[in-house]
Amino acid sequence: MSDIEIVESLKRDLGEKALDLTNPDVRRIFVKIAPPELVPVVTLLRDKYDCAYLATISGVDKGDTFEFLYHFASPVANINLRTEFPKSEPRIASICAVIPGAVLYERELQEMFGVKVEGIPDPRRLVLPDDWPEGQYPLRKDWKHVRPQEVIPGGKS
Amino acid sequence: MSFQIPIGPQHPALKEPISLRMTVEGEVITDVDMRLGYNHRGMEKLAEEKSWLQNIYVTERICGICSHSHATCYVQGVEKLMELAPPRRGLYIRYLVAELERVHSHLLWLGVAGHEAGFDSFFMYTWRDREIVMDLLEMISGNRVHYAINTLGGVRRDIDEGQKAKILEGVATLRKRSEYYFYIGANEPSFVARIAGVGYLSKESAIALCAVGPVARASGVARDVRKDDPCAVYGELDFEVATADTCDVLGRVVVRVKELLESYKLIEQMVKGLPAGDIAVKAPRKAKPGEVVSRYEAPRGENIHYIKANGTDKPERLKVRAPTLANYPATVEMLRKGFIADIPLIFAAIDPCICCAERTVTLVAAGSGEESVVRMSDLRRQALARHQNAPVKRNAVWPL
What we know:
A: alpha/beta; Beta Polymerase, domain 2; two-stranded parallel sheet; about 20% helix; B: alpha+beta; Enolase-like, domain 1; Cytochrome-c3 Hydrogenase, chain B; five-stranded mixed β-sheet; three-stranded antiparallel β-sheet
């Protein structure tokens, strides 16, 4: 399928659900959907568009909202599913039931952005240490690293 | 009664830190848990503080083996954002270095596989030959590890006729040697018997768990970004995607061996067809607001960068996904139902790069719940002992 055919087919299948549908470059398609549509659309992409391969999930802090991009790849195109939700209600559904390989990426999003992924099979932290303080989410734009005060036993000589 | 065995994060046989927790019943692994983060350096946050140019050198330091892969993936994305068209000569040199890097990475891995399977002469041979390609890389770029040859809009160093002749000569030697090793592999039944059937990953699981690179291709999934999404020069070169359908460690060896031969082919085509002209164009300091998804086939699998620009000289967001991270769920599947003695071999077979994604094994006895920390060298000894006593799989063949 060529890019134009995929875009036309997506327009037919998604209809009103596709809030935005662009094809900025060869084999790059960006689709924007509302958060509640996430799991059904992922299922559609997997079953109809041969997108069983999820490359990764990118999170972006846009100030008042979070934007998540699900980068899918089929042998012919790279379909990027975009969804946006307010920072005041940081919740998104898990897609692990449809794409089992997504679990590590969702765990990373949870600890880095403080977004609750509902229904994730394994909610533990991925890369942050066990003693990392609660409520600190490093990839949020307002998070700044503060170097802890150096304590030298006996004081500096 | 099941035991839990921890392997890592600090382990003499592991060059990089990761913690694997195996639940075992007798000698059979029933469950595996991985804990990551021992090497987390916060590179994505750091990249937001650095300029577009500085970030080439930050991304290059994500990994020490596939350093060129991350830098290439990053620059090809940023060039799209800046609407730059690098000269063809620059592109050819960039992907020539990329293929040389693939050769050195696969030769390194073949040695490790031989070592873990108890075939140490194979390890000595492949690592000796790896020096040929390392010398070529040093001649082209001036460095053995971080080549620093990429820049926005092209490459930083040109190659001359003498260097071209040396590359062709080196590749000819490597091809002869590689073919000789395949002959040895085909005629070495104990090596084939040791790796056949170990670390099984079915095609369905490979697809469901989003495996990438040689791991996916060894399970019969022909997934290669160079073919599916050809960037820059790959569309005009002749090569094939190597696959195998045995779904085990043998398949992963075969895929990498075939890829070596394909890389030699690509290197020769690129050196012989090197276009004349400039090697780089001047890049602007800032990029217009926009976003780009950049994909690149690293030696270990697909590398993907998502880059978002906000109009300044720094990226708004740089998301990096290294191939090893994508292969972890598949590794858990491969280790399940395997033997403790096969852990080093299976884990080595994904060619893990912990730096990129981010070793001790704790074995817990199934009866008492007692934890015992096993050294990788002891595990290797157990592995060798088990296979000396195991019956030879006489029907296993080297499928080349």
